[in-house]
């Protein structure tokens, strides 16, 4: 018994005529008769009764018709799901990102993607940039949002820049520099600097050190914390200056914290999306296509923050 025989049987049962079934299926009447005969032999039952008025379903035929509908419907559903999955129309995308502020500018794109592909699920998890790179390589996540400096160095990973996020000096409102409209890194020389420890945020730690050392300065680190919000709290208390990005600090309204733009040409980081080369998940390609369309609609082809 195969799916073709069941479809022939269903058509014959619906029309109660081998002739009409043959016309509907675009096959010879003898082919219909042959398929029905093979089914009856295999099952050891009579599927149709031949009467003076024509064909009628035998009791065994009535039972088989119910099951044949169920089997064919199941097979068609499986075929459709497999085909849709292979084209990326269903399945799941796993995203990794460093912070919600980093992915926030992509929310309109993600919302549009969800609307076009409702059968593709999404998972979101936070990691540091180095772990994101590792998980992309290990295929634990499909796409990761992070800093260029931490991700692009890996040969197995492709990258698309999304936006440039400038750095800001964050301090308490009573700090002597709090009234400035902008600052240079040089103006911060001698100021106590509050940084997350390198294990917690290696990318930002290295970039801030590079900003200082490239100018012949040595950062005076007061304390190393394990999260950015703690650095802000310490800055609000007047314990020193925290350096963060515009996109990150702009996501919070913290009383007593002042953030001032840094004017240095290299005081920024590039944020983008990364994915493994030749991804096995076809939904990755669909998302990247949507992302390309989203960015093409923006001035300059990238997000402004």
Characterise this structure.
By secondary structure, the chain is an alpha/beta fold. It has three domains: 3-86, Arc Repressor Mutant, subunit A; 92-162 and 272-301, Periplasmic binding protein-like II (D-Maltodextrin-Binding Protein, domain 2), CATH 3.40.190; 164-269, D-Maltodextrin-Binding Protein, domain 2 (3-Layer(aba) Sandwich), CATH 3.40.190.10. Helices cover 43% and strands 24% of the residues. The protein is built from twelve helices and eleven strands. It has helices spanning 3-15, 18-25, 29-43, 59-86, 100-103, 107-116, 129-137, 148-151, 202-213, 228-236, 246-249, 282-296; strands at 48-51, 54-57, 91-97, 120-126, 143-147, 157-172, 192-196, 220-225, 241-245, 257-261, 268-276. The strands form two sheets. Strands 3, 4, 5, 6, 7, 8, 9, 10 and 11 form a nine-stranded mixed β-sheet that branches. A two-stranded antiparallel ribbon has the order 1-2. Strand 1 and strand 2 (54-57) form a beta hairpin. Helix 1 packs across helix 3, helix 2 packs across helix 3 (29-43) and helix 6 (107-116) crosses helix 12. The longest helix has 28 residues, at 59-86. The chain starts with a helix and ends in a 9-residue tail after the last helix. 31% of the residues are buried.
